[in-house]
Amino acid sequence: MSSSVYSRHRAAFAQALASALGVPAADIEPQVKPADPAHGDLSFATFPLAKAQKKAPPAIAAGLAQTLSVPGLEIKAVGPYVNARFALMPFTAEVLDAARSAGLAYGGDADAGRGKTVTVDYSSPNIAKPIAFHHIRTTFLGHCIANIYRALGWRVEGINYLGDWGKQFGLVAVGFQEYGDPARIDDMGHLVEVYVKANTRAEKEPEFDAKARDFFRRMEAGDAEALKVWNQFRETSIRGFKTIYARMGIEFEHIEGESRYQGKMDAVIEQIAKKPGVKESQGALIVDLPYAENEPPILLKKNDGTTLYATRDLAAAEDRYERFHYDKALYVVAQDQALHFRQVFRTLSAMGQPWADRCVHVAFGRIHGMSTRKGLVVQLNDVLDEAKERASVKVKENQEAGRLQSNDPDLLAEQIGLGAIAFGDLKHKRASDYTFDWDEVLSFEGHTGPYLQYAHARVVNVLRKGGGVPASYDASLLTLPEEQALVREIMRLPEVVKDAAEQYEPSLVARLLLDVAAALSRYYTLGNQERDKRILVENDDALRFARLALTDAARVTLAAGLTLLGIPTPENM
Ligand code: ARG
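Above: inputs. Below: predicted complex with arginine.
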Protein backbone atom coordinates (compact mmCIF):
# COMPACT_ATOMS: atom_id res chain seq x y z
CA MET A 1 0.00 0.00 0.00
CA SER A 2 1.64 3.17 -1.08
CA SER A 3 -0.62 5.86 0.18
CA SER A 4 -0.62 6.66 3.86
CA VAL A 5 -3.34 8.57 5.67
CA TYR A 6 -1.04 11.56 5.71
CA SER A 7 -0.07 11.51 2.06
CA ARG A 8 -3.64 11.09 0.89
CA HIS A 9 -4.73 14.11 2.86
CA ARG A 10 -1.72 16.14 1.93
CA ALA A 11 -2.49 15.44 -1.71
CA ALA A 12 -6.18 16.25 -1.26
CA PHE A 13 -5.33 19.51 0.50
CA ALA A 14 -2.89 20.44 -2.26
CA GLN A 15 -5.50 19.58 -4.88
CA ALA A 16 -8.16 21.72 -3.17
CA LEU A 17 -5.76 24.66 -2.89
CA ALA A 18 -4.70 24.23 -6.49
CA SER A 19 -8.22 24.29 -7.86
CA ALA A 20 -9.15 27.27 -5.71
CA LEU A 21 -6.08 29.08 -7.08
CA GLY A 22 -6.34 27.76 -10.62
CA VAL A 23 -2.83 26.30 -10.71
CA PRO A 24 -1.53 22.73 -11.16
CA ALA A 25 -1.53 20.69 -7.93
CA ALA A 26 2.14 19.91 -8.42
CA ASP A 27 2.92 23.59 -7.79
CA ILE A 28 1.43 23.47 -4.31
CA GLU A 29 3.39 21.83 -1.57
CA PRO A 30 1.76 22.13 1.83
CA GLN A 31 4.32 21.77 4.60
CA VAL A 32 4.03 18.88 6.99
CA LYS A 33 3.26 20.01 10.49
CA PRO A 34 3.97 23.65 11.16
CA ALA A 35 6.15 24.47 14.14
CA ASP A 36 3.18 25.15 16.42
CA PRO A 37 1.18 21.93 16.80
CA ALA A 38 -1.90 23.91 17.82
CA HIS A 39 -2.06 25.09 14.23
CA GLY A 40 -2.53 21.74 12.60
CA ASP A 41 -0.85 19.01 10.63
CA LEU A 42 -0.44 20.71 7.29
CA SER A 43 0.26 24.28 6.44
CA PHE A 44 0.26 26.37 3.31
CA ALA A 45 1.97 29.78 3.27
CA THR A 46 0.30 32.41 1.08
CA PHE A 47 3.21 34.87 0.84
CA PRO A 48 4.16 33.93 -2.71
CA LEU A 49 0.65 34.78 -3.91
CA ALA A 50 0.54 38.31 -2.50
CA LYS A 51 2.10 40.01 -5.49
CA ALA A 52 -0.10 38.46 -8.16
CA GLN A 53 -3.28 38.84 -6.16
CA LYS A 54 -2.43 42.32 -4.91
CA LYS A 55 -3.72 41.35 -1.50
CA ALA A 56 -2.16 40.95 1.92
CA PRO A 57 -1.29 37.31 2.76
CA PRO A 58 -3.67 37.11 5.77
CA ALA A 59 -6.57 38.21 3.56
CA ILE A 60 -5.65 35.59 0.95
CA ALA A 61 -5.41 32.91 3.65
CA ALA A 62 -8.77 33.87 5.11
CA GLY A 63 -10.40 33.79 1.68
CA LEU A 64 -8.95 30.40 0.84
CA ALA A 65 -9.84 28.85 4.18
CA GLN A 66 -13.43 29.84 3.63
CA THR A 67 -13.77 28.24 0.23
CA LEU A 68 -11.84 25.02 0.86
CA SER A 69 -13.48 21.87 1.97
CA VAL A 70 -11.67 18.53 2.24
CA PRO A 71 -13.27 15.55 3.97
CA GLY A 72 -11.31 14.58 7.05
CA LEU A 73 -9.57 17.95 7.38
CA GLU A 74 -10.48 20.96 9.51
CA ILE A 75 -9.19 23.95 7.62
CA LYS A 76 -8.61 27.38 9.03
CA ALA A 77 -6.60 30.50 8.40
CA VAL A 78 -4.02 31.56 10.94
CA GLY A 79 -2.42 34.83 9.88
CA PRO A 80 -0.87 34.31 6.44
CA TYR A 81 -1.20 30.50 6.63
CA VAL A 82 -3.93 28.16 5.62
CA ASN A 83 -3.68 25.34 8.13
CA ALA A 84 -5.33 21.97 8.12
CA ARG A 85 -5.80 19.60 10.99
CA PHE A 86 -6.79 15.99 10.69
CA ALA A 87 -10.03 14.89 12.20
CA LEU A 88 -8.08 11.87 13.22
CA MET A 89 -10.46 9.58 15.01
CA PRO A 90 -11.80 7.78 11.91
CA PHE A 91 -8.25 7.04 10.75
CA THR A 92 -6.79 5.78 13.99
CA ALA A 93 -7.15 2.10 13.19
CA GLU A 94 -5.71 2.60 9.72
CA VAL A 95 -2.68 4.44 11.09
CA LEU A 96 -1.96 1.86 13.78
CA ASP A 97 -2.48 -1.08 11.46
CA ALA A 98 -0.24 0.42 8.79
CA ALA A 99 2.59 0.76 11.30
CA ARG A 100 2.11 -2.59 12.96
CA SER A 101 1.78 -4.60 9.80
CA ALA A 102 4.81 -2.95 8.19
CA GLY A 103 7.08 -3.45 11.20
CA LEU A 104 10.61 -2.24 10.49
CA ALA A 105 9.54 -1.31 6.97
CA TYR A 106 7.13 1.31 8.38
CA GLY A 107 7.80 4.72 6.90
CA GLY A 108 9.01 3.18 3.67
CA ASP A 109 7.14 2.66 0.45
CA ALA A 110 8.46 -0.03 -1.85
CA ASP A 111 6.55 1.42 -4.81
CA ALA A 112 7.77 4.98 -4.59
CA GLY A 113 11.14 4.41 -6.21
CA ARG A 114 10.46 1.24 -8.11
CA GLY A 115 12.68 1.03 -11.18
CA LYS A 116 14.81 3.98 -10.13
CA THR A 117 18.46 3.95 -9.21
CA VAL A 118 20.45 6.25 -6.99
CA THR A 119 24.17 6.19 -6.34
CA VAL A 120 25.22 7.46 -2.93
CA ASP A 121 28.87 8.42 -2.69
CA TYR A 122 29.62 8.54 1.01
CA SER A 123 32.23 8.01 3.67
CA SER A 124 35.06 8.00 1.10
CA PRO A 125 37.97 8.41 3.50
CA ASN A 126 41.53 8.87 2.36
CA ILE A 127 43.70 5.86 2.78
CA ALA A 128 46.65 6.09 5.13
CA LYS A 129 45.68 9.58 6.19
CA PRO A 130 44.00 10.63 9.41
CA ILE A 131 40.24 10.73 9.21
CA ALA A 132 38.68 14.15 9.67
CA PHE A 133 35.37 15.45 11.01
CA HIS A 134 33.85 15.44 7.57
CA HIS A 135 34.41 11.70 7.18
CA ILE A 136 32.35 11.16 10.31
CA ARG A 137 29.44 13.24 9.06
CA THR A 138 29.43 11.80 5.57
CA THR A 139 29.46 8.29 7.01
CA PHE A 140 26.40 8.85 9.22
CA LEU A 141 24.49 11.03 6.75
CA GLY A 142 25.27 8.87 3.75
CA HIS A 143 24.33 5.67 5.53
CA CYS A 144 21.01 7.16 6.58
CA ILE A 145 20.23 8.63 3.16
CA ALA A 146 21.02 5.28 1.54
CA ASN A 147 18.71 3.56 4.05
CA ILE A 148 15.93 6.04 3.32
CA TYR A 149 16.14 5.59 -0.44
CA ARG A 150 16.25 1.84 -0.03
CA ALA A 151 13.13 2.01 2.16
CA LEU A 152 11.46 3.98 -0.62
CA GLY A 153 12.07 1.20 -3.09
CA TRP A 154 15.00 2.69 -4.98
CA ARG A 155 17.89 0.56 -6.10
CA VAL A 156 20.71 2.03 -4.06
CA GLU A 157 24.34 1.76 -5.08
CA GLY A 158 26.33 2.93 -2.08
CA ILE A 159 29.84 3.80 -3.14
CA ASN A 160 32.77 4.26 -0.84
CA TYR A 161 35.04 6.27 -3.10
CA LEU A 162 38.32 5.93 -1.30
CA GLY A 163 40.99 8.56 -1.63
CA ASP A 164 43.45 5.85 -2.59
CA TRP A 165 45.68 7.66 -5.02
CA GLY A 166 48.08 10.51 -4.59
CA LYS A 167 51.25 11.74 -3.02
CA GLN A 168 50.31 10.54 0.46
CA PHE A 169 51.32 7.03 -0.59
CA GLY A 170 54.72 8.33 -1.46
CA LEU A 171 54.91 9.84 2.02
CA VAL A 172 53.85 6.63 3.71
CA ALA A 173 56.19 4.54 1.58
CA VAL A 174 59.32 6.60 2.14
CA GLY A 175 58.24 7.29 5.72
CA PHE A 176 57.82 3.59 6.38
CA GLN A 177 61.48 2.92 5.67
CA GLU A 178 62.39 5.22 8.57
CA TYR A 179 59.51 5.17 11.01
CA GLY A 180 57.66 2.01 10.12
CA ASP A 181 57.57 -1.20 12.04
CA PRO A 182 57.38 -4.00 9.44
CA ALA A 183 55.58 -6.19 11.98
CA ARG A 184 52.77 -3.63 12.03
CA ILE A 185 52.26 -3.17 8.31
CA ASP A 186 48.77 -4.62 8.83
CA ASP A 187 47.80 -1.97 11.33
CA MET A 188 45.92 0.97 9.85
CA GLY A 189 46.60 3.14 12.89
CA HIS A 190 50.30 2.56 12.47
CA LEU A 191 50.22 3.65 8.83
CA VAL A 192 48.49 6.85 9.82
CA GLU A 193 51.19 7.52 12.45
CA VAL A 194 53.84 7.00 9.81
CA TYR A 195 52.00 9.33 7.45
CA VAL A 196 51.75 12.06 10.06
CA LYS A 197 55.49 11.86 10.82
CA ALA A 198 56.47 11.75 7.17
CA ASN A 199 54.21 14.64 6.33
CA THR A 200 55.68 16.84 9.04
CA ARG A 201 59.17 15.98 7.88
CA ALA A 202 58.38 16.64 4.21
CA GLU A 203 57.18 20.11 5.11
CA LYS A 204 60.57 20.93 6.53
CA GLU A 205 62.84 18.91 4.27
CA PRO A 206 62.51 19.38 0.51
CA GLU A 207 64.62 16.30 -0.33
CA PHE A 208 62.31 14.10 1.64
CA ASP A 209 59.31 15.65 -0.08
CA ALA A 210 60.96 15.06 -3.46
CA LYS A 211 61.42 11.40 -2.63
CA ALA A 212 57.75 11.07 -1.80
CA ARG A 213 56.72 12.78 -5.03
CA ASP A 214 59.01 10.54 -6.93
CA PHE A 215 57.40 7.50 -5.39
CA PHE A 216 53.97 8.70 -6.50
CA ARG A 217 55.27 9.43 -9.98
CA ARG A 218 56.48 5.85 -10.13
CA MET A 219 53.02 4.70 -9.14
CA GLU A 220 51.42 6.75 -11.88
CA ALA A 221 53.94 5.39 -14.36
CA GLY A 222 52.90 1.85 -13.43
CA ASP A 223 56.10 0.81 -11.65
CA ALA A 224 55.33 -2.69 -10.37
CA GLU A 225 57.46 -2.40 -7.25
CA ALA A 226 55.83 0.88 -6.17
CA LEU A 227 52.36 -0.44 -6.93
CA LYS A 228 53.01 -3.51 -4.83
CA VAL A 229 53.85 -1.37 -1.80
CA TRP A 230 50.85 0.88 -2.49
CA ASN A 231 48.58 -2.11 -2.69
CA GLN A 232 49.80 -3.44 0.62
CA PHE A 233 49.02 -0.13 2.34
CA ARG A 234 45.68 0.02 0.61
CA GLU A 235 44.69 -3.47 1.73
CA THR A 236 45.65 -2.69 5.30
CA SER A 237 43.55 0.47 5.29
CA ILE A 238 40.55 -1.21 3.73
CA ARG A 239 40.68 -3.96 6.33
CA GLY A 240 40.81 -1.32 9.05
CA PHE A 241 37.89 0.60 7.57
CA LYS A 242 35.87 -2.57 7.26
CA THR A 243 35.99 -3.23 10.98
CA ILE A 244 34.63 0.27 11.57
CA TYR A 245 31.85 -0.18 9.05
CA ALA A 246 30.93 -3.56 10.50
CA ARG A 247 30.68 -1.91 13.88
CA MET A 248 28.30 0.67 12.45
CA GLY A 249 26.25 -1.85 10.51
CA ILE A 250 27.23 -0.32 7.18
CA GLU A 251 27.59 -2.35 4.04
CA PHE A 252 28.66 -0.64 0.86
CA GLU A 253 27.62 -2.03 -2.47
CA HIS A 254 30.98 -0.85 -3.77
CA ILE A 255 34.28 -0.08 -2.15
CA GLU A 256 36.42 1.42 -4.85
CA GLY A 257 38.43 4.55 -5.19
CA GLU A 258 40.17 7.19 -7.18
CA SER A 259 42.80 4.69 -8.31
CA ARG A 260 40.12 3.00 -10.40
CA TYR A 261 40.45 5.85 -12.89
CA GLN A 262 44.15 5.59 -13.54
CA GLY A 263 44.62 4.83 -17.17
CA LYS A 264 41.15 6.15 -17.99
CA MET A 265 42.16 9.76 -17.57
CA ASP A 266 43.43 10.34 -21.06
CA ALA A 267 40.11 9.40 -22.62
CA VAL A 268 38.22 11.83 -20.41
CA ILE A 269 40.67 14.59 -21.01
CA GLU A 270 40.50 14.06 -24.73
CA GLN A 271 36.73 14.22 -24.62
CA ILE A 272 36.79 17.52 -22.77
CA ALA A 273 39.69 19.00 -24.64
CA LYS A 274 37.59 19.33 -27.80
CA LYS A 275 35.06 21.57 -26.10
CA PRO A 276 35.27 25.32 -26.48
CA GLY A 277 36.56 26.90 -23.30
CA VAL A 278 39.29 24.38 -22.74
CA LYS A 279 42.80 25.64 -23.09
CA GLU A 280 46.39 25.12 -22.18
CA SER A 281 47.88 27.50 -19.76
CA GLN A 282 51.58 27.26 -18.89
CA GLY A 283 51.59 23.60 -19.86
CA ALA A 284 48.55 22.78 -17.75
CA LEU A 285 45.13 21.97 -19.13
CA ILE A 286 42.28 24.04 -17.83
CA VAL A 287 38.57 24.29 -18.54
CA ASP A 288 37.33 27.82 -18.52
CA LEU A 289 33.60 27.45 -18.95
CA PRO A 290 31.19 30.30 -18.59
CA TYR A 291 31.20 30.07 -14.84
CA ALA A 292 29.51 32.29 -12.39
CA GLU A 293 31.61 35.30 -11.64
CA ASN A 294 34.63 34.91 -9.42
CA GLU A 295 34.87 31.19 -9.93
CA PRO A 296 38.28 29.95 -10.89
CA PRO A 297 38.68 27.73 -13.95
CA ILE A 298 38.92 24.03 -13.36
CA LEU A 299 42.33 22.41 -13.63
CA LEU A 300 42.34 19.02 -15.37
CA LYS A 301 46.00 18.25 -15.73
CA LYS A 302 49.03 19.74 -14.09
CA ASN A 303 52.02 20.81 -16.08
CA ASP A 304 53.93 17.72 -14.87
CA GLY A 305 51.26 15.58 -16.51
CA THR A 306 49.63 14.32 -13.30
CA THR A 307 45.89 14.43 -13.03
CA LEU A 308 43.72 15.82 -10.30
CA TYR A 309 40.84 15.11 -8.00
CA ALA A 310 38.42 16.89 -10.35
CA THR A 311 39.56 14.97 -13.39
CA ARG A 312 39.05 11.72 -11.54
CA ASP A 313 35.56 12.80 -10.45
CA LEU A 314 34.62 13.51 -14.06
CA ALA A 315 35.77 10.04 -15.05
CA ALA A 316 33.99 8.51 -12.05
CA ALA A 317 30.68 10.20 -12.87
CA GLU A 318 30.79 8.85 -16.41
CA ASP A 319 31.84 5.40 -15.27
CA ARG A 320 29.04 5.27 -12.72
CA TYR A 321 26.51 6.36 -15.28
CA GLU A 322 27.64 3.64 -17.62
CA ARG A 323 27.44 1.02 -14.89
CA PHE A 324 24.26 2.04 -13.11
CA HIS A 325 22.27 4.38 -15.36
CA TYR A 326 21.41 6.38 -12.30
CA ASP A 327 18.38 8.60 -11.94
CA LYS A 328 20.20 10.44 -9.21
CA ALA A 329 23.84 10.59 -8.21
CA LEU A 330 24.30 11.87 -4.67
CA TYR A 331 27.64 13.04 -3.33
CA VAL A 332 27.49 13.29 0.44
CA VAL A 333 30.51 15.50 0.95
CA ALA A 334 31.38 18.52 3.13
CA GLN A 335 30.23 21.99 2.15
CA ASP A 336 33.92 22.89 1.79
CA GLN A 337 33.92 21.06 -1.53
CA ALA A 338 30.97 22.99 -2.98
CA LEU A 339 33.07 24.74 -5.59
CA HIS A 340 34.65 21.46 -6.66
CA PHE A 341 31.26 19.86 -7.29
CA ARG A 342 29.83 22.93 -9.00
CA GLN A 343 32.74 22.81 -11.38
CA VAL A 344 32.56 19.08 -11.96
CA PHE A 345 28.81 19.15 -12.64
CA ARG A 346 29.09 22.14 -14.96
CA THR A 347 31.88 20.52 -16.84
CA LEU A 348 29.79 17.38 -17.25
CA SER A 349 26.99 19.38 -18.76
CA ALA A 350 29.40 21.27 -20.99
CA MET A 351 30.60 17.85 -22.15
CA GLY A 352 27.02 17.30 -23.27
CA GLN A 353 26.14 14.63 -20.71
CA PRO A 354 22.35 14.68 -20.61
CA TRP A 355 22.42 13.23 -17.10
CA ALA A 356 24.64 15.96 -15.64
CA ASP A 357 21.71 17.50 -13.81
CA ARG A 358 21.05 14.26 -11.97
CA CYS A 359 24.17 14.85 -9.91
CA VAL A 360 23.62 16.45 -6.52
CA HIS A 361 26.13 17.62 -3.99
CA VAL A 362 24.55 16.80 -0.63
CA ALA A 363 26.63 19.24 1.35
CA PHE A 364 26.98 19.43 5.10
CA GLY A 365 28.49 21.71 7.73
CA ARG A 366 31.28 21.22 10.20
CA ILE A 367 31.63 19.61 13.58
CA HIS A 368 33.47 21.80 16.03
CA GLY A 369 35.25 20.65 19.13
CA MET A 370 35.28 16.93 18.54
CA SER A 371 38.33 15.56 20.26
CA THR A 372 39.06 12.31 22.02
CA ARG A 373 41.28 11.57 24.99
CA LYS A 374 43.91 10.59 22.47
CA GLY A 375 43.96 14.11 21.08
CA LEU A 376 42.40 16.22 18.42
CA VAL A 377 43.21 14.07 15.40
CA VAL A 378 40.19 11.85 15.33
CA GLN A 379 39.81 8.41 13.91
CA LEU A 380 36.24 7.27 13.71
CA ASN A 381 37.21 4.15 15.61
CA ASP A 382 38.64 6.24 18.43
CA VAL A 383 35.43 8.20 18.65
CA LEU A 384 33.37 5.01 18.81
CA ASP A 385 35.74 3.50 21.39
CA GLU A 386 35.50 6.49 23.61
CA ALA A 387 31.72 6.64 23.21
CA LYS A 388 31.52 3.02 24.27
CA GLU A 389 33.79 3.58 27.22
CA ARG A 390 31.77 6.54 28.43
CA ALA A 391 28.49 4.73 27.83
CA SER A 392 29.70 1.77 29.81
CA VAL A 393 30.33 3.97 32.87
CA LYS A 394 26.73 5.17 32.61
CA VAL A 395 25.37 1.68 32.10
CA LYS A 396 27.15 0.53 35.24
CA GLU A 397 25.91 3.49 37.27
CA ASN A 398 22.34 3.04 36.14
CA GLN A 399 22.49 -0.67 36.67
CA GLU A 400 23.72 -0.24 40.24
CA ALA A 401 20.97 2.29 40.89
CA GLY A 402 18.41 -0.22 39.60
CA ARG A 403 17.34 2.09 36.76
CA LEU A 404 18.54 -0.18 34.01
CA GLN A 405 18.78 -3.86 33.32
CA SER A 406 20.85 -5.63 30.78
CA ASN A 407 22.17 -9.13 30.44
CA ASP A 408 24.94 -7.95 28.14
CA PRO A 409 26.24 -4.61 29.45
CA ASP A 410 29.20 -4.65 27.09
CA LEU A 411 27.06 -4.93 23.98
CA LEU A 412 24.64 -2.36 25.38
CA ALA A 413 27.47 0.13 25.94
CA GLU A 414 28.58 -0.35 22.34
CA GLN A 415 25.03 0.23 21.09
CA ILE A 416 24.47 3.29 23.25
CA GLY A 417 27.83 4.73 22.27
CA LEU A 418 27.04 4.36 18.58
CA GLY A 419 23.51 5.69 19.08
CA ALA A 420 24.87 8.72 20.90
CA ILE A 421 27.34 9.72 18.19
CA ALA A 422 25.01 8.93 15.30
CA PHE A 423 22.00 10.77 16.68
CA GLY A 424 24.18 13.62 17.95
CA ASP A 425 25.12 14.12 14.32
CA LEU A 426 21.88 13.35 12.49
CA LYS A 427 19.61 15.52 14.60
CA HIS A 428 21.31 18.63 13.20
CA LYS A 429 20.22 20.02 9.89
CA ARG A 430 22.93 18.81 7.59
CA ALA A 431 23.84 22.29 6.37
CA SER A 432 24.49 23.62 9.86
CA ASP A 433 27.71 23.47 11.79
CA TYR A 434 27.50 22.12 15.29
CA THR A 435 29.62 21.85 18.39
CA PHE A 436 30.18 18.37 19.69
CA ASP A 437 29.89 17.69 23.41
CA TRP A 438 30.43 14.28 24.96
CA ASP A 439 28.11 14.79 27.93
CA GLU A 440 25.37 16.19 25.76
CA VAL A 441 25.27 13.35 23.22
CA LEU A 442 25.50 10.64 25.86
CA SER A 443 22.80 11.98 28.14
CA PHE A 444 19.78 9.79 28.76
CA GLU A 445 17.62 12.88 28.83
CA GLY A 446 17.15 15.48 26.17
CA HIS A 447 17.44 15.23 22.45
CA THR A 448 19.78 12.27 22.28
CA GLY A 449 20.24 8.81 20.86
CA PRO A 450 20.38 7.14 24.28
CA TYR A 451 17.12 8.87 25.23
CA LEU A 452 15.40 7.42 22.16
CA GLN A 453 16.94 4.00 22.67
CA TYR A 454 15.68 4.11 26.23
CA ALA A 455 12.21 5.22 25.11
CA HIS A 456 12.16 2.26 22.74
CA ALA A 457 13.31 -0.25 25.36
CA ARG A 458 10.75 1.11 27.79
CA VAL A 459 7.92 0.62 25.34
CA VAL A 460 9.09 -2.92 24.65
CA ASN A 461 8.98 -3.51 28.37
CA VAL A 462 5.42 -2.18 28.73
CA LEU A 463 4.31 -4.47 25.92
CA ARG A 464 6.04 -7.39 27.57
CA LYS A 465 4.29 -6.67 30.84
CA GLY A 466 1.00 -6.29 29.04
CA GLY A 467 1.33 -9.81 27.75
CA GLY A 468 2.01 -8.89 24.16
CA VAL A 469 -0.22 -7.42 21.54
CA PRO A 470 -3.81 -8.50 21.13
CA ALA A 471 -5.02 -9.97 17.86
CA SER A 472 -7.83 -7.48 17.65
CA TYR A 473 -8.76 -4.28 19.39
CA ASP A 474 -11.16 -1.36 19.12
CA ALA A 475 -9.35 1.80 18.06
CA SER A 476 -12.36 3.98 18.79
CA LEU A 477 -11.56 3.62 22.50
CA LEU A 478 -8.42 5.73 22.07
CA THR A 479 -10.09 9.03 22.84
CA LEU A 480 -7.68 10.71 25.25
CA PRO A 481 -6.03 13.78 23.72
CA GLU A 482 -2.65 12.26 24.65
CA GLU A 483 -3.56 9.16 22.68
CA GLN A 484 -4.64 11.11 19.64
CA ALA A 485 -1.46 13.17 19.89
CA LEU A 486 0.59 9.99 19.77
CA VAL A 487 -1.39 8.67 16.79
CA ARG A 488 -0.62 11.95 15.01
CA GLU A 489 3.11 11.49 15.45
CA ILE A 490 3.00 7.84 14.40
CA MET A 491 1.06 8.84 11.32
CA ARG A 492 3.74 11.27 10.20
CA LEU A 493 6.61 8.83 9.66
CA PRO A 494 5.91 7.90 6.01
CA GLU A 495 5.48 11.54 5.07
CA VAL A 496 8.58 12.64 6.91
CA VAL A 497 10.63 9.88 5.28
CA LYS A 498 9.51 11.07 1.87
CA ASP A 499 10.43 14.67 2.70
CA ALA A 500 13.75 13.53 4.13
CA ALA A 501 14.53 11.76 0.85
CA GLU A 502 13.58 14.76 -1.25
CA GLN A 503 15.60 17.15 0.86
CA TYR A 504 18.41 14.68 1.72
CA GLU A 505 17.68 15.63 5.30
CA PRO A 506 17.91 12.86 7.92
CA SER A 507 17.31 15.44 10.66
CA LEU A 508 13.62 15.41 9.72
CA VAL A 509 13.41 11.75 10.75
CA ALA A 510 15.48 12.42 13.86
CA ARG A 511 13.14 15.21 14.94
CA LEU A 512 10.04 13.14 14.36
CA LEU A 513 11.41 10.42 16.62
CA LEU A 514 11.91 13.00 19.36
CA ASP A 515 8.30 14.05 18.90
CA VAL A 516 7.13 10.44 19.13
CA ALA A 517 9.14 9.91 22.30
CA ALA A 518 7.79 13.14 23.80
CA ALA A 519 4.20 12.14 23.01
CA LEU A 520 4.83 8.73 24.56
CA SER A 521 6.29 10.27 27.64
CA ARG A 522 3.23 12.52 28.10
CA TYR A 523 1.09 9.44 27.75
CA TYR A 524 3.01 7.58 30.45
CA THR A 525 2.92 10.59 32.75
CA LEU A 526 -0.82 10.69 32.46
CA GLY A 527 -1.02 7.09 33.60
CA ASN A 528 1.30 7.78 36.52
CA GLN A 529 -1.14 10.39 37.72
CA GLU A 530 -4.43 8.63 37.12
CA ARG A 531 -4.67 4.89 37.37
CA ASP A 532 -7.43 4.51 34.80
CA LYS A 533 -5.28 6.28 32.26
CA ARG A 534 -2.46 3.79 32.54
CA ILE A 535 -1.60 1.90 29.40
CA LEU A 536 -2.00 -1.37 31.28
CA VAL A 537 -5.33 -0.35 32.74
CA GLU A 538 -6.76 -3.00 35.01
CA ASN A 539 -10.23 -4.49 34.80
CA ASP A 540 -10.92 -3.26 31.30
CA ASP A 541 -9.57 -5.66 28.71
CA ALA A 542 -10.95 -3.85 25.68
CA LEU A 543 -9.37 -0.57 26.69
CA ARG A 544 -6.07 -2.23 27.60
CA PHE A 545 -5.97 -3.99 24.24
CA ALA A 546 -6.51 -0.74 22.36
CA ARG A 547 -3.81 0.96 24.40
CA LEU A 548 -1.41 -1.92 23.80
CA ALA A 549 -1.99 -1.67 20.07
CA LEU A 550 -1.23 2.05 20.18
CA THR A 551 1.87 1.39 22.27
CA ASP A 552 2.97 -1.25 19.81
CA ALA A 553 2.57 1.13 16.89
CA ALA A 554 4.71 3.63 18.77
CA ARG A 555 7.35 0.94 19.32
CA VAL A 556 7.35 0.14 15.61
CA THR A 557 7.70 3.83 14.71
CA LEU A 558 10.68 4.27 17.01
CA ALA A 559 12.34 1.05 15.89
CA ALA A 560 11.81 1.72 12.19
CA GLY A 561 12.96 5.34 12.48
CA LEU A 562 16.06 4.51 14.51
CA THR A 563 16.92 1.76 12.07
CA LEU A 564 16.74 4.24 9.19
CA LEU A 565 19.16 6.43 11.11
CA GLY A 566 21.52 3.47 11.52
CA ILE A 567 20.99 3.36 15.29
CA PRO A 568 20.70 0.04 17.14
CA THR A 569 17.53 -0.61 19.12
CA PRO A 570 18.34 -2.77 22.15
CA GLU A 571 15.25 -4.29 23.72
CA ASN A 572 16.62 -4.38 27.24
CA MET A 573 17.96 -1.30 28.91
N1 ARG B 1 38.19 11.49 -0.31
C1 ARG B 1 37.60 12.80 -0.32
C2 ARG B 1 37.94 13.53 0.95
O1 ARG B 1 38.27 12.92 1.92
C3 ARG B 1 36.09 12.75 -0.43
C4 ARG B 1 35.58 12.13 -1.71
C5 ARG B 1 34.17 12.50 -1.98
N2 ARG B 1 33.65 11.94 -3.19
C6 ARG B 1 33.93 12.34 -4.43
N3 ARG B 1 33.39 11.72 -5.44
N4 ARG B 1 34.72 13.36 -4.64
O2 ARG B 1 37.85 14.74 1.00
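Residues 346 and 400 are 60 Å apart (CA to CA).
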